[in-house]
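PROTOCOL LOG
Step 1. Enter all chains and additional molecules of the complex.
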Amino acid sequence: MHGDAVPLFFYSDLFLRHPETRDLFPVSMAAQRDRLVHALGRIVSGVSRADALGEYLQDLGREHRKFGAIAEYYPYVGASLLATLAHFNGPAWTPELAADWQAAYDLVAQVMIGAAAEDAGVRPAFWEATVIAHELRRFDIATFRVATTEPLDYLPGQSVSMESAERPRIWRCYSPANVPRDDLTMDFHVRMIDGGTLSMVLTRGVAVGARLRIGPPVGTLTYRPGTRRDVLLVAGSTGLAPLKAIAEQISGLPDPPRVHLLFGARTADGLYDLTDLEKTAARQPWLTVTPVVSHEPGFPGERGLLHEVLARGGDWRRHDVYASGPTPMVEATVTQLTALGVPRSQIHLEDFGWSEP
Amino acid sequence: MTASSRNGRLTPDQVQSISFPPARFGRRGLDEETVHSFCDQVQHELVTLLNEKASLWEEVERLRRRIIDTGDPAGARPEDAHVQAVRILSNAQQMADRYVADAQQYSRQLTGGARRQRDEVLAEAKSHADRVLDEARSRASRAAEVVASEPGPAASGEWRDRTAELAYLRTFSEVYRTHLRAYLETLLNNVEDWEQSEKASLASARAELPFPFPPAPQEQPPPPAPGPTSYSSPPPGSPPYSAPPPPPPPYPPSPPAPSSPPARSSPPPASYSSPSPARLP
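Step 2. Run joint prediction.
Step 3. Record the structure below.
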């Protein structure tokens, strides 16, 4: 009805009444306004399914801890929300409506605050981390290692959100490329996206000593042991990171399954971690690494897109598949494997949401 | 005793300090008449106050209606002022959003363009290197065939093979050397062009300068320091002003002047076949 005007009014109202809340948000609020509308829509439309809504709100409450949202701010948000509704509804806004909305908001806030408080008893809002090594593998691909001050427990294959002091309040998800270590270090692989706010900083803008904030782990791309099936890992570009962590996890098993890792890039110089992978494969008899290149006719190894190579070689029906990379690559992989007879329940994904330029 | 101030109004002080005389002999309590009279006075005062309050309220309402009806912004209600502030902040925020989006768009175009250009340069370099190698190989093969087919006196198979191999290698290295020489010449030409264009731009910049040097705060060269600090140090005898430094020269291999494109005729310079001269064989 009023489009962007409603969230625009809401945030301006909030920042005018409580200027200290401005610091929770990035300079540009455009994406934030979309997020607010999306979340409100989800809450309003989810009212009929209370369980699912409760879970969503609890997630939302926990997620907001790293942004610095404290319980004290929740009433501020409620007041500005009601002021916004009053402003846009004009004479149609009645005290009864206001009371209903207030009650609904209080309920939402209560669930969020409760989940956040519970979470605060278990772990910090975010982990302070320092870059201790940084290597530019190609002009637009970097790997770097950070050390956190507190232990961060995650499952191999999961991802964490990350914020750089260079770009305050911009959080993006990256997967650690290793299993959790005793020395509290983690490795990340980052590819620069053209115009990408954080990826440009992480590839070319940070050096040893740079400070990062890391959020709690999320994601469902985790290894399912106990199926007795062999494993196929399909990695496109820096989508390799979570799969490398999973391979490392498998290497620690007493009786590891056979693992086949397909590592794909457009050109050979995009296989930024191949040397390390091949070194590991030479030591581990259960691991096979196949580099795949799609856009370099002279490449001596497998040529083509990852899903084309999958179609050419082998029977994958008795494999657990883990795929990670750009959206089109992940989608094509799923389509191809399903067509080849791999049950969808055996395919696990991490969708990075971006595509190769 | 009556409690009354000068203008006949009751004051809080009077209520506070009122004292009633004791009742007349034979009766208990306070003097009834005095108490009644004071209560009358209090009632009167209350009525006056309530009437005054009502009329003031009416006045407030009247003024408020007048503001709304006339729409006089100077007399805006507090909530109107807030809405206005919200509007101003919203406009500022949208402006900031646009600046960020523009910067992002610009950086996307810039990096995207650079990436495409890099891919093109690399692809061209690769295909050029392939062509050079192919040419060297095919010419060397032809040379070897010629040697192998020559009828020689008492030519044993091994001798013939060795000679053919020698001819192959000799031709291969000759072709490669030719390309290398062309590449190095192109580089040298580029360096010379760069040097000349720098000299020319220095000379013209100096000629255009009025004397004395006009104050130009933004382009003012650094004050002459002892020792060779500036790369545009004046030749001996020239006035002690150094010309504004020319734009930084392009890094050598790119052609500096449009008038002198690098020679790309035959033989083609192996300009991309090696990433840097230092790594040439």
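Step 4. Note key features.
The two ends of chain B are 126 Å apart (CA to CA).
The mean pLDDT of chain B is 71.
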